[in-house]
Specification:
Layout lengths: L36 H5 L28 H20 L15 H16 L2 E2 L4 E11 L2 E10 L2 E4 L5 E5 L2 E11 L4 E8 L5
Antiparallel strand pairs: 1-4, 2-3, 3-6, 4-5, 6-7
């Protein structure tokens, strides 16, 4: 089983954020061999071999998610999760890369999953995960946002609505490392957080 934020070869991962009212927002996940986000995205290596140019910052990012404070970081990650959910359930690409540093391997992996869903004509049957909490912490000048989530049991469907894969329920945690951009926050890294027990 693949966890919500974990990206594997040709499969997608589920993501969902809560709206201010607490209702889930759709996003993807799949079954198959589990690969940790750390291995998939290189948790200690935020940059890729060759930097790419930065796309203009999206104008649809809510004002609350642009604020360079703890509340703004939390709102930004919730917005990012909603965008990832949209890109995997619609499917659509590129979506989340607009909200990331061009050197972020984590974001590139999620965007690649969305592109594969578009290419293969697949999407998720319903909200694949629910964000249980989104909490920002500032550590030595770096804004980190911790997300606790529940991956919901869902199906990945093809163009005809046939089930391609089944996704089981699982709980997990992610850590986002954010950087301040001129117009708002940008994701530099996303990694899975393992329990220390």
């Amino acid at each position: 089983m693949v966890r919500w934020w974990v990206v594997v070869g040709c499969a997608a991962v589920a993501v969902v954020a809560c709206t201010p009212a607490g209702s889930p927002v759709t996003s993807p996940t799949t079954t198959g061999a589990t690969t940790s986000a750390t291995a998939a995205t290189g948790s200690t290596d935020v940059t890729s071999a060759s930097p790419t140019t930065m796309a203009p910052y999206p104008t649809d990012v809510p004002a609350a998610a642009r604020a360079h404070d703890v509340a703004g970081a939390e709102a930004f990650v919730s917005y990012w999760l909603q965008q990832l959910s949209y890109s995997w359930t619609t499917p659509a690409s590129p979506v989340v890369s607009r909200l990331c540093l061009p050197t972020s391997k984590s974001c590139a992996a999620y965007e690649q999953t969305a592109a594969e869903l578009v290419r293969d004509g697949q999407h998720y049957s319903g909200p694949p995960a629910t964000a249980l909490s989104v909490v920002a912490l500032t550590t030595e000048g770096v804004m980190r946002v911790l997300v606790r989530y529940r991956q919901e049991p869902r199906s990945v469907l093809d163009r005809e609505g046939k089930v391609v894969e089944k996704v089981g329920q699982a709980d997990g945690r992610l850590e986002f490392a954010l950087e301040r951009g001129a117009d708002g926050w940008l994701v530099g890294l996303i990694r899975e957080v393992k329990d220390s027990t």
